[in-house]
Each structure stands twice: as structure tokens, then as C-alpha cells.
């Protein structure tokens, strides 16, 4: 095959949305306004409004309502550029599980010098989203166990420079094509998921290298295709002509926990791992998939992130060449990309259970997935962001109504089949007046069925080319939707919009209203530099309409309070690029994590704690850009009592992934890609590493930086943050 030059794309911030939404949206408003409640929903008139305290008495899944913290019980930490994890006075952070740690008793200790092998039995790289799954003393699933449990985790990506994942190769690896098979074999194994058992003696936490629960899922693990796209022509490959099986999961970013106790993980920036021949568009002639391939960010001739397709003719390398080079789809991997981009479901308690790709939840750059509180007799509802510039916010509403008995289902993946395989996907459109609509993405929507933008003939067309369906209905282009979280106290949904360097005055709208210039040293940064967090309220989670406001505008404390620092942030809570967001069920605290490159001249990435308010607790605001005025809705200004910085991470790291024990006394977070700005040429010169964490905190061999999980506890044994 003809190879393009090595990649220059930042695969984490792809933008390939060519549409001019929301201007399309106004045209379509009249057609769609006739649509009432979402399909699968119970009539709203027969169901009361969800009051703040109206949740009690419903049959629900899992934990009881949080004893909402009335105050944040710690002193904020200062911004930091140290190569260390900084936590408040009275707290301890302990490293428990890092890249390369052995998952079986027979796997040698990690040397961390680039000579290690057998990554199928070690922790993967770039720890990201994760969830806690408790175990009782007999090793059975427990919703309350807080000292012994499993953590299921995403291993999103790897620290690379010009093709090679350099910290796992002795000399940094090969930055030219073709890539050596031995290097690619390692890289294929450091992506995916892991399940690892952890235990505490009440003081110290440790993972169990020999636990029978430990598991790795990699890019080559078999997965079953479920939902609307199962058996579709779009999923036929040389590996499986029936379109029902695929291999592996990739670029798993945010995570979630289902009401029936399984782990769900979002496949995010998968498209960059595939190569297409320069002439692939021509080879496919009138194949409508060419439009889809471009919309999902893969132009013909572009280099892949790691050049895996170049490592040889064997199937495990050839599959990364997504070109039409065989006689038919059964004879090549032209459809291999279509087997990625889904929410995948894993049963963390059963290490033999096959991973399931839940295609009815759509194909996109999935960040996390978060569920509304499950209520007996009502549909199960999940919220999701598609993280790329100008992409959309989605929700899924199940056909099946929640049966509280499924919270302890014997066959958890069968419960997943019941709630995630049949249902309806919706995409959000925000309006200036503070209202919004969920637009149905199905052939029952005439805008989709009659679209001249893309030919939607089957439910699989919508499931596989979801972004095109969302374009067609006129969804609102957002500033990179990342994690969604549901406030357990009142059901309001918070979605982080991390930043958008391409937002311009012309494209500002009420829900993405800021454009400004920020300085990083002498470098000018433009657009929505620091990001924001939008908040939605629905009368019922399955409703077709919502109200919204902007809970928080991220900003530097010193920025102009009239146009940039609209939430009144101070030195104690200023931040940039909110990404991870989770509500604690134990404390009610809204935890917010950052993955930032804009404020990193002043501070490393961080974790903050917020006491959330409620929709409408602020007011209206009009931003003026010359002739253009943008009306928006701003939540209440923050104070040092409502919002505080809790932790700052080491150099070059993103803070991501967050879960807690049910008692709220152990909070786990991930430190992803410390030292990621290290040059590959310096791979054997620790004095030139950007970071030497966690070795410099006393964890493990070698000096090379490693992604790792840490656990934060309070020295007095109390609930973290409260
Ligand atoms: Fe993997 Fe959108 O962060
Ligand atoms: Ca700045
Ligand atoms: Ca993220």
C-alpha cells in the first residue's frame, strides 16, 4: 500500500463536522414541533413533575439518595506546576495500579525500561474512565462492599510521538513506516480495558496481582455486535461475513455503570488508528460510506496514528487498512472502522463473558455514558457526549421499562440486551430562550427517512452513521461534549464542554456563547479557550424537551468578569478544560476533572469539588461582539464555599476517570499520560523527562512516567470531600 507521511493530527481533538447547524435547525423547527413525547415514554400528563425531593418512594436501582454535603470540608489546594499529586491537608493519595503492573501471579514485575512484554497480562496504558464493583467476603457481587472490589477501567491510548508508543519500547521504537511487528504487537495489547481486584486493610489499598477476577480486554479480544447494527452489511468484514462479530475495543475514554451493575465504556478517537489508500474514494465508486468516512474523520490517504497496518500481511495488521482492496466486503477490511465507535458493555464479575457492542446507542466519538436514576415502570435513559469540535449531545431511551428486580439480575448482560438493544436515540438542540428539544434519530422521523443529505434506509444506517443523522435533523454544534453526569438529588444533567479553539463570533450561539483571546505566555489562544459546563433539566428523563442553563464557565480568575469569567472564579477554583464529571452518591459532591493545555503555563491539570445548585439559580446574560449580541443563561456565580480545587496532578498529566466506594471513604482517580511532552529522543535520559511520576513518588521500578490509578482517603476515615 502507499503510505502517507507520518501523522500531524492531534487525534484527541478531531473536527470533521462540516455542517452549519444550528441555522438548519431554525428551518426544521416548524416540522418537528408537532412531535410530542418521545417514543417509548409514558404520557407526561399522567406522571407528576419530578420535584427535588420527589424521588423517594420510587423503586430505584442501587444506592439510596445521597446525604448531600452542605459544605466542602477541606481547604483548597493552590495551583501547582510540581511533578507530584497535591491533595488537601488531612488527605492521603496512594498509587495502586500503574501501566505494566502484572495481572497474573506468573507475570514478571514491570521493569519499566522498555523491555517488558506480555502486556495481555499487565495493566494497559492511559488509564481513563473506571467504575467500582464491590465484592463481599465470599467474592460475590455486593452493592455495599467498600473494602474489597473490582475496578473496571479504560486504557484509552498511549503516549506517542510520530507513530511509536515510545515509553514501552527500549529505544523509543520506530517512528518510520513500516512499523516492526514486534513493536505493534505490544501496542495492540496496551489499549482496551482491564478489570483488577483491589482490597483495603482499612489503612492501605493494594491491587491483587493473582486475582481470578483480573482481566484484560485488548484490540484483539472478540466482541459481539448487538443492537440496531447487528448483522448489517456495514459490519461485514473478512473476519466475520455475518456482521455480528468484531474484534477488540479501542480508545476507550469515559465510562459508566448501568443500573443492572455492568461496566459501559465509550470508544472515542478510534478513527485515527485506520489507514485508507489514497485512491480509496475512487475504488468505492458510489458507495455512500465515503460520505460517512469523511464525516468520521478519515480522508483517503491520511496516515494512521501508529501505522499498525504497515507491520505485515498477517490479519492482525491488515485489519487496520480500511480500504476497499478485495473483491467484496467479505474479502477485506473496508468496513473495519464501522466496528468501532460504540458504547461497549462488560460484565466485570465474569471474566469469560464476551464484550458486547451496543450499537443502538449510536456511533460517534463516545466520551462517557451516564444513566438517569432508574425508576420502576419507566424507560431506562442514558446521556452521552460526542467529543470532537462541533459535535453533539445525545440521549438513549429504552423500549423496555425498568424492572427493579434487574438491579440484581443473575445474567447481567441479558439485562443489558433488554435495555440497550431496543430503544430510540435522540440528539439535542438548544434554543435561545433556555428551552431545548431532543430530536429523534430514527426512520420514524420524516426528516431522516426523507433526507437528501444522506440515504437512511435502515435502522443500521442511523446506528452506524449517527453523526450524519444528527446533522440532518439540525442538532446544535457544541464545544466538544465530554462527560455527562446526573445530579442524584434532582435528576439534572451536567455535560462538560471542554473547549473549542474553532468557535468564532459568527458561530457563537446561546449554549456556546463565549469567544475570547487568552494568553499562554506570549501565545494568543482564541475561541472558547477554557470551556464550560451546560446543565439540563427535564420533567421526566424520557421527555422530548428540556430547559438548560450554563452551570459553570471555566476561566482564569483574572479574566474579565463581564465577558469571560462569568462564574466569578477565584484563585481557589479557577480551571480550564473541564472533562471528567461525576456526582458522588455518597456526598452529593460534583467532582470535576480537567484535561487542559491552555492554562498549563500556570498549573497542571486538577480535580475540583462543587456543591451544585439547580437550573435557573442564576440569570440571563447578553454577550456583545461588535454588532452581534448573544443571549445566554448563566448559573449562579461560584464562591469559595461552593467550588474548590481539591487536587493537582503531576506534569503533563490529565486527571480523568473517577469512582468511589459506596461509603464514599475511598475516591479513585486516574493520572493519565504524565510526561506526555517528553521527546522520544530522550526516552533513555530521565533528566530530560517532563515527568518521572509515579517513580518519584516511590512507586515501581525505572524512571519512565506511567499512567496510574490513585486512591484518595481522609486521614480521619471520613467521606472524601465532605
Ligand atoms: Fe478521551 Fe474526550 O477525552
Ligand atoms: Ca492564560
Ligand atoms: Ca476525556
Describe, in short, the structure shown.
By secondary structure, the protein is mainly beta. The chain has 9 helices and 35 strands. The chain has one domain: TolB, C-terminal domain (Neuraminidase), CATH 2.120.10.
Question: The biggest beta sheet, please?
Answer: 9 strands, antiparallel
Rg for CA atoms: 24 Å
Secondary-structure-derived class: mainly beta
- Poorly predicted regions: 23-66
Order of strands side by side in the largest beta sheet?
16-17-18-19-20-26-25-22-21
Strand portion? 25-35%
Q: Portion of residues in helices?
A: under 10%
Report the average pLDDT across residues.
Answer: 93
CATH superfamily: TolB, C-terminal domain
List the defining traits of the structure above.
about 725 residues, about 10% helix, binds MU-OXO-diiron, nine-stranded antiparallel sheet, six-stranded antiparallel sheet, 35 strands, Neuraminidase, globular, binds calcium ion, mainly beta, 9 helices
Spell out the blueprint of helices and strands:
Elements: H1 23-32, E1 91-98, E2 127-135, E3 141-142, E4 148-155, E5 160-161, E6 164-165, H2 181-190, E7 192-200, E8 205-207, E9 215-217, E10 222-226, E11 245-247, E12 252-257, E13 263-267, H3 280-283, H4 289-295, H5 315-318, E14 343-346, E15 355-358, E16 366-371, E17 379-386, E18 393-401, H6 412-420, E19 423-430, E20 435-440, H7 446-449, H8 459-464, H9 466-473, E21 481-486, E22 493-497, E23 516-520, E24 523-527, E25 532-537, E26 545-553, E27 578-583, E28 590-594, E29 606-610, E30 619-625, E31 628-634, E32 643-648, E33 654-660, E34 667-672, E35 708-714
Parallel strand pairs: 10-15
Antiparallel strand pairs: 1-35, 2-3, 2-4, 4-7, 5-6, 7-8, 7-9, 10-11, 12-13, 13-14, 14-15, 16-17, 17-18, 18-19, 19-20, 20-26, 21-22, 22-25, 23-24, 25-26, 27-28, 28-29, 29-32, 30-31, 33-34, 34-35
The chain binds MU-OXO-diiron and calcium ion (2 copies).
Residues 156, 253, 268, 367, 387, 482, 579 line the site of MU-OXO-diiron (FEO).
